[in-house]
Amino acid sequence: MTQESWRFKDRHGVFQLKHGDESNYLYFPLVNEAGMMSAVTPTLHGSITSGHNTFLMEPISVESLHNSNAARNFWLFVEGEGAWSVSGNSAQQQGLKFSGQEEESEIEAGFLWHKLTRKHKKLGLKAETTNIVPPSEDQVELMKVKITNTSTEAITFTPTSAIPLYARSADDLRDHRHVTSLLHRIYTLSYGITVKPTLSFDERGHRVNHKTYTVLGAEGQGKSPIGFFPIVDDFIGEGGSFSWPKAVVANMEPTAHTGEVIEGYEAVGGIRFATVELAPGQSISYITMMMIADGDIEGHELRNKYLSEQQFDTWLTLTEQYWNDKLDVLSFQSGDSDYNLWLKWVTIQPILRRLYGNSFLPYHDYGRGGRGWRDLWQDCLALMVMEPAEVRNLLINNFAGVRIDGSNATIIGSQPGQFIADRNNIPRVWMDHGAWPLLTTLLYIHQSGDVDILLQPQTYFSDAFHRRCQVKDKEWNVNQGNHLVDQHGHIYKGTIIEHMILQNITPFFHVGKHGNIKLEGADWNDGLDLGADHGESVAFTAFYASNLKEIVKLLLDVHDRSNIQKIALAEEMTILLDTLSHPIDYNSIDAKQALLERYYDSLMPSISGKQLELDIVQVANDLHQKSMWLTEHLRTNEWIGNQEGYSWYNGYYNNDAKRVEGDHPNGVRMTLTGQVFPIMGGVATDEQVKEIITAVNRYLKDEEIGYRLNSNFGEIQQNLGRAFGFAFGHKENGAMFSHMTVMYANALYKRGFVQEGYDVLNSIYKLSANFPVSRMYPGVPEYINAKGRGMYTYLTGSASWLLLTELTEAYGVKGLYGDLQLEPKLLAQQFDQEGLAVVETLFADRKLRIEYENVDRLDYGKYQINKYEIMLNGNKVSSLPQEQVNSEFKCVLPRALFTELDTGQSHTLKVKLGRV
Ligand code: G1P
After folding, report:
1. Which of 481, 500, 706, 891 fits as disulfide partner to 879, beta carbons 3.0 to 4.6 Å?
2. 818 within ligand 1 shell (Cβ under 6 A)
3. CA end-to-end span of the chain, whole Å?
């Protein structure tokens, strides 16, 4: 049977999907700021947790979604008929699968609520189950089950809700699953069941536990249950299971009542309600509350707060309001309304990643909740536009993770600016890590005009590792703390610009045999982890080259705009600014490596703490020379061609110091990453960009899968990375990996290849939204696999990049040192019938609605902004003079225009596009 697609029900992004349970890997996120993290599937499966050590329902991976029966459930024992599950999780309902007799079911979901409707046709019963995690201060999930008699006869049934209570750390799933059940103390309250294990056994040791895991239930008007089944054994019965529990199937009497304590068993929130008779057309609702708390719960207060239909409905409204308010700060209205709504679901993704980290959704069954360094910076990109309030502090705090050797801490604490030393293993250095902070900080500076951030002082991270983790100081101990101290024992602080220069200048010297920056532990592609000795990432060499260029521009702009003549840099850094005193030959690999060693030596046994005031133009000049050298080097040595006559940039050298890309007996080898950064940063010339596009279309573009991350190398690559151990077409081995594909689009837009950039973004949308194949809800997946399925949904850095590319490139709305720059790169088809394309965004703390009016629906290249007819709230405003902007296609509006406006409301900027 071909699966029907989801479709949008309204203009707010609510979507509906029939027979959601006929797609195995679907899940939907429910989450709040208090730290409740749930996932819910079309059969109401999925974990409920507040962290790695506090799972209310079992931690699960995607395969358990269909293979385990430990799901949220709500049962009816219907007189004359037997057991029926509102989630479709009874053995009988499962038995209808593939028979053509499947029950009718439908998912409806919005921001952020999930509703499952199932119908028992023969009986004429309809069950609507809605789940939310309310925006309250509690770690709580609520579920309302509404049963309606749609038949013409009265129906009598006995309801039982059954939420398995795992109540412990994810570590205990395999390790001591049984022993940890002996720690359980299960209490029956008047409305439900709470589990408070005596101890927690996890990585932190065996400690007294204070967490409680609770399931409460009430009939919609607040009426209490009539009894409980708190122990899994008793509930399912010998030989039974969660899909055929004896307590329900045999309609047993409850095994427990209020006020009992049961010790040492697997628990379940089995809650029995009184038998009811529903007249035709009549409905009844039941509310279930699932909560993780820091101590004993106040049943009475919680009942008043959550446990009635009225309360549930209020929380549902608040939930929708909360998320809609959040998402309202960024929205796009192009000619394709489905695309606009799909983008709304992408818009929520960066917030989800902030809340879930990289763990706690079914595909993300790894990690303990934290985020990596790279994600820290990349997720900021979209958050900067959507949740800008805390960004400045966040950025400054993040810089505290940089080491004085240009590398950085990779274990990130739960508080902003908290970085933790790796005490055990030799940690890896990801060579791309140093490149991202500049990009994010530049975006911030341009959005806000806050150049001052560059001069803010910040500490450096210090631990046992030196020389980009090549040397471990055995003497170092954790009591020394993680701040770099100078020779006098004072904590050393350098400016933010010092941190950024260091991050981008040390890699320049850290080169392999071919003069490119060493791959070290890996680059952006975590799977390229086997080239630490001789591997080189040409791709990221291009990124660092353009970063150096950007820093030069930044320094000179700062100099021109603010007349700052000098910057203070750590005295030792002058070694790295070699052209200021003792220039070395950049063509000599040895000279570069020796210079870096000299710099490392100068930091031993500690940094002096002295800073030198250096002429900003001279520093810029040094960096300029480095950037130019890299650019020339890449253009001369890494631009390759093959027998079929295609040309592109080689992206890597492997651990045998052999070039990776080009013709090969197993087939042509090419990576997308190798192309993206030379394009994005201007290393590739315009002519080369054209050739790259042709080569990408030849070797990486697949009609079914989209733009692949790499071509098929045909064998594992023990000298490059584990990624090639993955089957081809999956994850970091040749899937359509959204993050890199979006960056490819971004790069193409930046270079003015607008149609091509659009085609790339559009292909991601089309692949993701093609439900019968992608089998995912609206949003962008981490990747599209060999079968076309959307994988690792919701938590992916590609969402940030996608939004940013739409906003700053396609709609062309971005800051320029705090002023507002407009440079739309929209194609004719992106305007609606009236010739309008609208983006709503925050700028200067004001909500702006920017309306581009292109009445003749001219294509990109044929229109330009009519600078004399820009209207802000109906009044004509003037842009900065052309000579200051340096492009006839751009228009820049001074920030002062916006800072005068009221912060409480939305303001409209009408921008007419006329023929060129
Ligand atoms: C994930 C990681 C990201 C990494 C990428 C490639 O991508 O989060 O840091 O660079 O894999 O290995 P994401 O899931 O964010 O799209």
Report:
1. 891
2. no
3. 52
Q: What's residue 2's pLDDT?
A: 60
Ligand 1 centroid, distance to 527 Cα (angstroms): 10
Q: Which of 293, 67, 51, 143 is nearest to 59 (CA)?
A: 51
Does residue 721 have its Cβ closer than 6 Å to ligand 1?
A: no
Q: What is the largest distance, in Å, between two alpha-carbon atoms of the chain? A: 95
Within the chain, which residues score under 70 in pLDDT?
A: 1-2, 203, 423-426, 882-889
Q: Is 797 in the pocket of ligand 1 (CB under 6 A)?
A: yes
Query: How far apart are the CA of 795 and the centre of ligand 1, in A?
Result: 9
What pLDDT does residue 170 have? Answer: 93
Query: What's the token pair of residue 725?
Result: 């151990």
> In the prediction, which pLDDT does 859 show?
97
How high is the pLDDT of residue 379? 83
Ligand 1 contacts CB of residue 782 (under 6 A): yes
Strands 227-231, 267-272: pairing kind: antiparallel
**562: helix, strand or coil:** helix
Token readout for 532 is 């630490």
Identify the residue whose C-alpha is closest to ligand 1 atom 5.
525
Name the H helices within 477-588.
496-509, 538-562
Give the whole-angstrom CA distance, residue 802 versus residue 790.
16
Work out which ligand 1 atom sits closest to the CA atom of 372. 9
How far, in whole angstroms, is CA 421 from its chain's centroid? 24
Nearest CA to ligand 1 atom 16: 796
Long-range contacts of 833-836 (CB under 8 A, 24+ apart): 833/335, 836/333
Among residues 725, 704, 801, 815, the alpha carbon closest in space to that of 761 is found at 801
The CA 788 to ligand 1 mean position distance, Å, reads 19
Cis peptide before 605 (omega within 30 of 0): yes
Q: Is 809 in the pocket of ligand 1 (CB under 6 A)?
A: no
Around Cβ 317, how many Cβ atoms within 10 Å?
Answer: 10
Indicate the burial class of 325 (C-beta count within 10 angstroms; 0-12, 13-18, 19 or more).
exposed
The answer to pTM > 0.90 is yes
Smallest CA separation from ligand 1 atom 14, residue:
796
* DSSP state letter for 23: S
CA of 385 to the centre of ligand 1 (A): 21
740 CA distance to ligand 1 middle (Å): 9
- Give residue-wise pLDDT tens across range 123-165: 999 999 999 999 999 999 999 999 999 999 999 999 999 999 9
DSSP code per residue over 664-686: -TTS-B-BSHHHHHHHHTT-S-H
Q: Which amino acid is at 499?
A: H
Q: What are phi and psi of 497, to 5 degrees?
A: -65, -35
Instruction: From 526, 529, 740, give the residue whose CB has the most ligand 1 atoms within 8 Å, as the site to mutate.
Output: 526
Length of the chain, in residues: 916
Backbone φ, ψ for residue 376 (5° rounding): -50, -45
Q: pLDDT value at position 885?
A: 65
Which of 365, 375, 519, 677 for mutating ligand 1's site (highest number of atoms within 8 Å of CB)? 375
Using CA atoms of 774, 778, 779, 781 in order, give the dihedral in degrees to the nearest 10.
Answer: -20
CA atoms of 891 and 885, how far apart (whole Å):
7
Q: What integer pLDDT is reported at residue 473 of this predicted model?
A: 86
Instruction: Produce one character per residue of 802-815: b if its CB has 16 or more CB atoms within 10 Å, e if not.
Output: bbbbbbbbbbbbbb
838-844-845 Cα angle (round to 5): 90
Q: Chain centroid to CA 334: how far?
A: 24
- Residue 705's CB is within 10 A of a number of other CB atoms, namely 20
Cα–ligand 1 centroid distance for 525 (angstroms): 7
Of the candidates 29, 23, 689, the residue with the CA atom closest to the CA atom of residue 361: 29
